[in-house]
Amino acid sequence: MTAAVEFDAITCTFAGKAGSYTAVKGVSLAIGAGEFVSVVGPTGCGKSTLLNVAAGLLGPSSGTTRVFGEPLAGINRRAGYMFQSEALMPWRTALANVTAGLQFRGVAPDAARARGQDWLERVGLGGFGDRYPHQLSGGMRKRTALAQMLILDPQILLMDEPFSALDVQTRQLMENELLELWNADRKSVLFITHDLEEAIALSDRVVVLSAGPAARPIGEFAIDLPRPRDVSEIRHDARFIELHDRIWHSMKEEVLKGYAQTRNRVAS
Amino acid sequence: MRYLRLWQLLLFVGIFALWQVLAQPELLPPIVWDNPHRAAFFFGEPLKIFKVVWEWFAGGVIYEHLWVTLQETALAFVIGSVLGLVAGLWLGLSPTASALFDPYITAMNAMPRVVLAPIFMVWFGLGIWSKVALGVTLVFFIVFFNVYQGVKEVSPVVLNNAVMLGANRRQLLRYVYLPSATSWLFSSLHTSVGMAFVGAVVGEYLGSARGVGYLIQQAEGAFDINTVFAGILVLTAFALVLDFAVGKVERRLLVWRPSQSETEKL
Questions:
Q1: What's the pLDDT band for B260 if we cut at 50, 70, 90?
Q2: Within the 60-79 window of chain A, which residues sit less than 8 Å (CB to CB) from chain B?
Q3: Beta bridge partners of A6
Q4: What is the pLDDT of residues A51-68, one digit of tens each?
Q5: Which of A86, A104, A190 to mutate to test binding with chain B, by most B CBs within 10 Å of its CB?
């Protein structure tokens, strides 16, 4: 079966004022169709770089990305991207934000509005379509962003620590909602996070990235927990704890390395 | 502070009363000038000033002039804003054009543009268009710099998000750059309307047949200081009304902007 996204020896080197910096080096990784893969790793290890490569926002220095078997050139039209920071257009209402992608594709305004309203209801924001982003709470803005992405029905979801800015309760709610929506039609997901618990609770497979620079995958773990899952309950499952220990063990060294590097960078 | 408006009004009355007392001939013994009429000649007398204002409005003379000034202001504002918006978007999005024009923009902005008034008079005559042209040169740069900044500071995340949602280059311009730039345009609304007004009045003052600036210029030629002050007073009140209207429009247009006092969330 062809993978939804396949990285083949991806290397990204950035030219900076203080010399060049290699964020990721020789990364080969495949995300199967309908698979939920999380990439975890210490902060600053180039997780977002990988995601931008998959989205086509960033061309790799070397290596190729294949999307359903075809080499990716330019923007990945089959992917939806959910950003870590605020990405909603502040001058548009929630509904207008959700329907933006339809508008760009030339869908008639009435049809777009109807579908937008439907999606707002699906993410629990039925009565908030006329609110502007600043009038919504952080969790509601994330729901809007989720609807904005899903309304286009992309085959691949790229998610860059989408819930990291939320408080714990809202976050678990959002994670459960994401799983529910994903369960409905099993899209391929590449989920970036620094939170190992989140990664295990959501994914079919967890990939551990080494500390940067020149980050690369150092471990892959299949998560054989049964679905459907409830993220707040599954954390107490014995198998979950076992997996967590194993992955954490392999990550620990890298996290410490990453931490030491950040500290040195601050000190120097 | 309680009764703030009342205190503000009292201050207003107080200032004009003091002015009246100091300037009225033969009310106070001479201090600075021997001639008791000298103070009134230089500084005018509030009572006479208000009488002129009253006569203007009651007799209906002023409306025609105010209307001309308003027309000039509005035209200068609209034309200057549109030109500034287009130029700002263009230079903001094209690094080559921006690099090429940079020194000229800086030079033209540094130039005291009031000196262009005589040239505009020659080009456009004594009617409203020479005043509009002067106002446009003032408004253009304010809008231009704001829009340019607005284009440069579009959030890269919002931009990337729009790209991922399928926006092409033209759609990015229309749905991301333009709204972002116009929000900066609106935040400079007060300044640019004010500048359009300055352009109109200064233009009228330098040569015209109608407008409030013309009234002031005429009165000055006849050493009628009370009428000059009356003109200034009317212009100030007019500017206040204009500013108030702009504030209303601004609140309407920038409804999506978070304001600090906003508590309504959820």
A1: low
A2: 75, 77, 79
A3: A30, A66
A4: 999 999 998 999 999 999
A5: A104
